[in-house]
Design a protein that fits this description.
By secondary structure, the chain is an alpha/beta fold. Helices cover 46% and strands 9% of the residues. The protein is globular, with a radius of gyration of 31 Å.
């Protein structure tokens, strides 16, 4: 055993024979001690040899690098790197082949029973499965299933994973993660290639539920799966705050899978709060949770016009005051020229009395805001600087909103119309174009951290988003209403505990988004949900409300649209 273990790490263990010879020249006791030394030397060697992996130069071949680093770190038995098994192609045996193999198998079953048992257990041996690129055989995805990933293994990964230039995804399923090892795992992610955009941690429940650290502001993860992690309302609160707060917002995460957890109404409310000011998440799954009507209504409310809270209104005023001078420099045209006839007709229908009230309220708030502005600037100085550096965070989906001028509200202006982007800004794009931009940015590994310059500056400028609080708003009865989150395209609430009461909330949301998308059909922009799953909840499939929701969503579903086009093409060809 000692000869086998010393072969891979020959450099640190080379002096061992010399020590045995020198001790052997002294006494016979020294000889006996030298013979016993190899078994006792293994623990200290494990402590001394971490210096050797630092000197190892990774080749970019995970199978070789991982084996060498494990050997140098003192491991004698470690998982092998193997290609991910693919399902076998369908095989149709002929009549001649169907008889002979069965007879031969019966004859050989007694002689090779040991081999057959071993082959059955090969599946359960710890391995690192990899998905390879078909052309250059580079590692694209890593799958680890069913064995505990310890701190030392993560240390080895931190040395060999950065050399994988085309790594796109890491999948860890039931690997016994702890809050400590999760922190170590998050620390190694920035070391990996910029193409790494997908992380899946499924079946890894954590006591502190610190999964939100994966969604930090400097994170580049675009696709995150946290299924089957026993996430409850507290964990959902942390995730909701990571999606967005009043002063921060995750701008890289595109899809989030929270299926098969323990999220209830309170947790759904926290996630809905995170969706209020988040404009990057396109795909959200809350299937197989414990959400009832209260949580469903909160989620539905965020997807249609909702009232801003007092703190949100104050923050919006502050952002408008800071944005005013910048807008004057960029866009010399007054907001009066940007008004459309529909806006004026709407404002006339509301009446002069409400306009006067809004005008007074706007004037009072704009006069009061500058007094405490100095303190607010100190508190949120970093956020302000980010907004200024990013050019007021231009959105790829919506045009730059006009500066709100409360003194001109007397001319019947109630809503703030959208303005066409100037030549220097990113073009307006629809939801499909936004997804293509996101996929392109994923391919380039673009992190949306605007505080640092990037080599993919053009992609960043196209991806910059306007602060949702600066979106066009509507004033009603002295309250400020935002148009709601129309960026979320996919929402899965399969197998929860929603009744017809919760369905009513989603029906009004779908009706509003359908009307809005018809009005926006001429211009490009986000139009809201394209896919909504409410099946297997606590209501009958024949429920009239559910049937109405399905009928409204059917023409919006891109898959059904593609099928109908294929059917039309087939019919026209015949």
């Amino acid at each position: 055993m000692s000869g086998e273990t010393s072969a891979p790490g020959a450099s640190p263990r080379a002096p061992r024979p010399a020590t045995q010879k020198s001790s052997g020249t002294v006494t016979k006791k020294g000889d006996r001690g030298a013979k016993e030394k190899p078994a006792a030397v293994l623990p200290p060697v494990g402590e001394e040899e971490p210096k050797n992996p630092e000197e190892y130069q990774c080749t970019g071949v995970l199978e070789i690098d991982f084996a060498e680093l494990c050997t140098l770190s003192g491991y004698t038995d470690f998982p092998k790197v193997v290609p991910r098994p693919r399902p076998h192609p369908t095989f149709f045996p002929s009549a001649s082949m169907s008889e002979k193999p069965t007879q031969e198998d019966q004859r050989l079953s007694g002689s090779c029973s040991l081999n057959s048992v071993e082959s059955k257990y090969v599946f359960f041996r710890p391995t690192i499965q990899v998905e390879l690129d078909q052309e250059d055989k580079a590692v694209k995805e890593i799958y680890i299933r069913g064995w505990k990933v310890e701190e030392r293994i993560l240390g080895i990964f931190s040395k060999c994973l950065p050399s994988l230039s085309q790594l796109q995804a890491i999948n860890l399923w039931k690997v016994g993660l702890t809050d400590k090892t999760l922190t170590t795992f998050i620390a190694l992610l920035p070391l990996c290639s910029s193409t790494l955009r997908k992380v899946s941690l499924e079946g890894n429940p954590l006591p502190e539920q610190s999964y939100h650290k994966l969604m930090a502001l400097d994170s580049t993860i675009a696709h995150l799966s946290l299924r089957n992690n026993n996430i409850d309302d507290h964990g959902a609160q942390l995730l909701g705050q990571a999606l967005s707060t009043l002063h921060s917002c995750n701008r890289t995460l595109v899809s989030l899978n929270l299926g098969f957890n323990h999220i209830g109404d309170e947790g759904a409310g926290y996630l809905a709060d995170g969706l209020r000011l988040n404009r990057s998440l396109l795909w959200l799954s809350l299937a197989h949770n414990r959400i009832q009507d209260k949580g469903a209504l909160k989620l539905a409310e965020v997807l249609r016009p909702f009232e801003l809270t007092h703190t949100e209104v104050v923050e919006r005023r502050r952002l408008l005051l800071e944005k005013g001078p910048l807008e004057r420099m960029r866009s010399p045209s007054s907001s009066r020229h940007g008004e459309s006839k529909s806006d004026r007709e709407k404002s006339q229908a509301i009446g002069a009395s409400s306009v006067a009230l809004v005008d007074k309220a706007d004037k009072v708030q704009t006069m009061k805001t500058p007094k405490g502005l100095g303190k607010k600037k100190e508190k949120s100085g970093e956020v302000v600087k980010k907004d200024e550096k990013s050019g007021s965070a231009q959105s790829p989906v919506q045009g730059t909103p006009k500066k709100e001028d409360s003194t001109k509200a007397g001319k019947g202006k109630v809503t703030i119309p959208e303005q066409k982007p100037t030549k220097g800004k990113g073009p307006k794009t629809g939801s499909r174009e936004k997804r293509s931009i996101l996929l392109e940015s994923e391919h380039l590994g673009q992190s949306l951290d605007y505080s640092r310059p990037s080599k993919h500056q053009l992609v960043t400028e196209a991806m910059e988003m306007v602060n949702p609080l600066l979106e066009p708003v509507e004033h009603r009865d002295g309250k400020v209403f935002m148009p709601g989150n129309k960026v979320l395209l996919h929402l899965n609430l399969l197998r929860n505990r929603i009744t017809e009461v919760g369905l009513e909330g989603f029906l009004s949301t779908v009706q509003y988004q359908a009307q809005f998308s018809k009005a926006k059909s001429a211009s490009k922009g986000p139009v809201g949900l394209l896919w909504l799953s409410l099946a297997k909840n606590c209501f009958s499939p024949q429920c009239p409300t559910y049937i109405m929701i399905q009928e409204l969503m059917l023409p919006r579903d891109p898959i059904s649209k593609a099928k109908s086009r294929e059917e039309e093409a087939m019919a026209s060809s015949t």
